[in-house]
Structures are given as structure tokens and as C-alpha cells.
Design goal:
- There is one protein chain.
- 81% of the residues lie in helices and 0% in strands.
- It is mainly α.
- The chain has 22 helices and no strands.
Length: 530
């Protein structure tokens, strides 16, 4: 067991923890790992709290609370797959320490068990914060006493512990498929992006049609439950939480058995699978062909674009905010009549332009493209360092690449909001300036964080993009600045309307100028120190 826990610690660190550099202090590791766990927990808590309340409000009068737990379990299952499938590819199959660990006198099954358990712990965190809030909502809103007994909470805890086992087994299988496609298909990233795109379309569809679906669900709850017979284990989960111990044990068995089969089955072929994936990915096929001339700027921008669009983890984590910007702009035009009716109901003093700016800037916050770009170079950063490039050239190319992506999306969203909400000329100009200032400041600050807190020795790109301190700061510090701008708007509103707009604009312009100046002054020296 001592070996198991030692290897499990290493696997958990590769999943959740990341340091600023190889000599980073333990406090920095703990802070970064805690930040990643907080993000996952907050996401689960928000989704479960919001949707559990909406579903329970519709289903409690008909005593169909069981459907709330079934839907939250489905959300936890799908969300867990989304969070960990690509991480499985990096941690289980493409870990940089695979050669070292496989050379040790350790059974392959033990190594697989440790790494799969690390995946389980991350799924457990998300599952816990999806099912337990649903239990709290059930206790507060139920009309038949469910949720008021200690046994109910015991059954709910057992379900929350068992569900991630099934989620982990599916994640490992899908991760193996992703790893296989990555080495077998020359355009594997394109296929992964298409799959993720389809998933996102489904998410947006359900988000925009949620109210109508809940109304239909309340009217035909029994029929919906009957139609879920194809997902028998999840029905057993719901019945078990509501009081049927036999069905709860059947659900636990359906989770434990696939998990054990995956661990022992993969353990038998793990060494062979990792060797095959590694040898295939290391292979290089050279073809002689004419090469077109290209300048430094064009070549570096092309390199950044290939990494961004060719790495699904990078694209869907750092680019989701840009997709949300485009979707929000289109949605504002489609739902223009509803939005204008809502504005009329709220009255003349409703802060329409500031809220529009908040939406645009928040979407930009969750698009930290420049922050992880240096760390993604990994051990090959020296190639760019040895190239005949000035330090400023490389830094401004990486920063400019983020601006090339964010500025068109920002202008598009601004145009859509201006048309849909019929903003006056002055407010429209203020919205555009605020969005552009924030986009510039966010890109420069993200690049500065990437240089200040690099992670060049990460085991995979998922650690850099999803869990590094640089990415976390590049997201949440601008959010804090956005909150400060909102406070200044409220403070200025006590004076005159133009002061309420001028103060946040001045703050955003100042932050953009400060971030850009700091990057220009400190960036080259920070790059040389790497």
C-alpha cells in the first residue's frame, strides 16, 4: 500500500497540481492545486444549485423528486467526461514519466490503478458538488418528507461515491480512443474539435430551451421517467436515493464492476499500449516539397495558430469565451424583441450599457490565450530563443495572436448588442472603448503572467492550460478589475451619468496601459531568465 499511495500522490499532482517552475515552493503547488479544485467545485455547485432548484420547483408538486437526482447524475456523468477525457490521454497514456515508472520493478496494474484513481478523485469532486446540492434542495422543497432522515443522506453519499467510478471507467475508455486517434489519424485534432463543437451546440440548445423543457417535464413527469428505461443504472440510482436499498446496491455494482474491469484489463496491456502510442507519436515522416517564403511574423503567427486550433484542450479551454461572445451577439439579435420588452419592464434607469460591457468583458476573461503560450513551448523553448528573433518580437507575436482572435469577436459582439438593444451613439462608443481597452489589457496581462509563472516541465498541456497559476491569474485578476469597474460605475452614478461612464473607462484604459508598459519593460528580461 505504501507504493500505491506514493504513486497516487504523483498521479494526483499531475492531475490537479502544477507549480510555477521545477524549483517552485510547496505553497505555490498547493495554491495552484486548490485553485483548480475550487473551479471544479464552483462549477458543479453552480450548475446543481441553479438547475436542481428549477427542476425541484416543477417536480415536487407531483412527487417526482427522483427525476432531479437522475438528471443531476446525468449532468455529473457528462460533465465528468468533458473534464477528464482529454486529461486521461495526457496523464494515463502520454505522461512524460511513463518511461521512468515503467522501468521500475512495479506491476503495470498497480501503476494503472494509481493513475485511474487520480482520475476518479477529480470526478468525485465534481460528482459530489452535483449530487449533494440536489439533496439540500430536495430537503428544503420536498412535499413528502424526503431528505429529512439520516438514511437519505447516507444513501445519497453512497451514490455520490459510486457514480464517479462509472464516470472514470468511461473516461479511461474514451481517453484511450482519443490517444489512439491522435497517433493513427493525421487530423485527429480536427475530429476532436468537431466532437466538442457538436457537444457545445447541444449545451447551447438545452440552455436556450430550458424553460420550455421544464414546463413540459412538469406536465408529463411520469412519462419522462418511463422513457428513461434505457438508462436503467441511473434509474436505480434515483430509486436508491429515494429509499430502495436493493436498487442502490445494484447501481453500486454497475459502477464498481466496470471500474475494476478497466483497471485490470488496461493493466494487462498497459506497457504495450504506452510503448505503441509513444513510438507512433515520435515518428517523423519527411516529404520533399517546395516551401514558400515567409517572414518571421507570418511564420510565428502560423505556428501559434497551428498550436491553438490543433490542440483541442487549448482551443476549448482558452477559446470558449470567444465562442460565447459570438453566440451572445447572435442571440441578442434573435431575441431582440424579448430583450427590449425586458428593458421596458425594468424602467428608464436600467444600466443596459454597463451590463453589456460586463458580458463582453467576462467572456474575454475566460479566453486566456496568451497566458499559457510560453509554457506550452515546454522544453523546446530554446529553439525560439536561439532563433534570430528579438525578445520583444516573440512576446508581441504571442500577445498579438490573442488580439487577432479576441478583437474581431469583441467588435462583432459590440455591433450585435448595439443593434439589438438600440443603444444611443454615446453609449455605443463607450461600450466599444471599454471592450477594446479590456481586450488589450487582458492580453498583455496574460502574457506577463505567463512569463512570471511559467510551467515548462508540465507532464501534459492540460496541466498548463487548465491548472497553471499563470492561467488562473490571467482569468481571475481581470475579473476582479471588472468588479472594480462596476463599483466605480455605481459610485459615479451618485454624481452624474457621464461620470458613471467615465470612471470605469478611465480605470480600464489605465490598466491596459499599465499592463502593456509592464510587458514591454519586463517581458524581455523575464523571457531571458527562463
Amino acid at each position: 500500500m505504501k507504493k500505491f499511495f506514493a504513486l497516487l500522490k504523483v498521479s494526483v499532482q499531475s492531475m490537479l497540481l502544477s507549480s510555477t517552475n521545477s524549483q517552485g515552493r510547496g505553497k505555490k503547488k498547493a495554491a495552484t492545486g486548490l485553485g483548480a479544485m475550487v473551479i471544479i467545485a464552483f462549477l458543479g455547485l453552480y450548475l446543481s444549485g441553479f438547475y436542481s432548484y428549477a427542476l425541484m420547483d416543477a417536480l415536487a408538486p407531483s412527487h417526482m423528486e427522483i427525476l432531479v437526482f437522475i438528471f443531476m447524475a446525468i449532468a455529473a456523468l457528462v460533465g465528468g467526461l468533458l473534464i477528464t477525457t482529454f486529461a486521461v490521454k495526457g496523464v494515463v497514456f502520454d505522461g512524460r514519466d511513463n518511461d521512468l515508472l515503467l522501468s521500475m520493478p512495479l506491476p503495470s496494474t498497480l501503476l494503472v490503478a494509481c493513475r485511474v484513481t487520480a482520475i476518479y478523485l477529480e470526478n468525485l469532486l465534481f460528482s459530489f458538488f452535483m449530487l449533494l446540492p440536489a439533496g439540500v434542495v430536495c430537503m428544503l422543497m420536498t412535499q413528502n418528507g424526503v431528505g429529512h432522515s439520516l438514511l437519505f443522506w447516507l444513501r445519497l453519499l453512497i451514490a455520490a461515491l459510486a457514480l464517479p467510478l462509472l464516470d472514470t471507467a468511461l473516461s479511461v475508455l474514451l481517453g484511450a480512443l482519443v490517444a489512439f486517434l491522435s497517433v493513427k489519424v493525421s487530423r485527429g485534432a480536427l475530429g476532436q474539435n468537431i466532437v466538442m463543437g457538436l457537444f457545445l451546440v447541444v449545451v447551447f440548445y438545452f440552455s436556450f430551451h430550458l424553460n420550455g423543457m421544464i414546463e413540459n417535464l412538469a406536465a408529463n413527469a411520469a412519462g419522462v421517467k418511463e422513457s428513461l428505461r434505457w438508462a436503467a443504472p441511473l434509474l436505480w440510482l434515483g430509486e436508491g436515493i429515494m429509499g430502495d436499498w436493493g436498487q442502490l446496491l445494484a447501481f453500486v455494482a454497475c459502477c464498481v464492476v466496470p471500474f475494476l474491469l478497466v483497471v485490470f484489463g488496461l493493466g494487462l496491456v498497459y506497457r504495450k499500449a504506452v510503448t505503441a502510442f509513444a513510438s507512433r507519436s515520435a515518428r517523423s515522416d519527411y516529404k520533399l516539397s517546395a516551401q514558400s517564403a515567409s517572414g518571421q511574423t507570418k511564420a510565428l503567427l502560423k505556428k501559434e495558430a497551428q498550436r491553438f486550433f490543433g490542440t483541442p484542450t487549448y482551443f476549448w479551454n482558452a477559446g470558449l469565451g470567444l465562442i460565447m461572445l459570438l453566440v451572445a451577439g447572435v442571440a441578442s439579435l434573435v431575441m431582440q424583441a424579448r430583450l427590449l420588452e425586458f428593458v421596458d419592464l425594468m424602467g428608464e434607469g436600467f444600466p443596459l450599457m454597463p451590463l453589456s460591457a460586463m458580458v463582453v468583458c467576462f467572456c474575454l476573461c475566460i479566453a486566456p490565450i496568451a497566458a499559457p503560450s510560453v509554457s506550452l513551448e515546454g522544453p523546446y523553448l530554446w529553439i525560439l530563443r536561439e532563433a534570430p528573433l528579438g525578445g520583444n518580437t516573440l512576446l508581441w507575436i504571442k500577445t498579438g495572436f490573442q488580439l487577432l482572435l479576441t478583437l474581431p469577436c469583441t467588435v462583432f459582439a459590440w455591433a450585435c448588442f448595439t443593434i439589438a438593444l438600440k443603444l444611443p451613439l454615446g453609449q455605443s462608443v463607450a461600450l466599444l472603448l471599454a471592450s477594446l481597452f479590456f481586450a488589450l489589457g487582458h492580453a498583455s496581462f496574460g502574457m506577463l503572467m505567463g512569463l512570471t509563472y511559467p510551467k515548462l516541465d508540465a507532464v501534459n498541456e492540460a496541466v498548463v492550460i487548465k491548472q497553471s497559476l499563470a492561467t488562473t491569474l490571467a482569468m481571475f485578476v481581470p475579473m476582479a478589475a471588472l468588479a472594480a469597474a462596476g463599483w466605480l460605475y455605481w459610485l459615479g452614478g451618485k454624481l452624474t451619468p457621464w461620470v458613471a461612464i467615465a470612471l470605469p473607462l478611465a480605470l480600464l484604459a489605465l490598466l491596459a496601459a499599465a499592463s502593456t508598459a509592464a510587458l514591454a519593460k519586463q517581458g524581455p528580461s523575464l523571457l531571458r531568465a527562463l
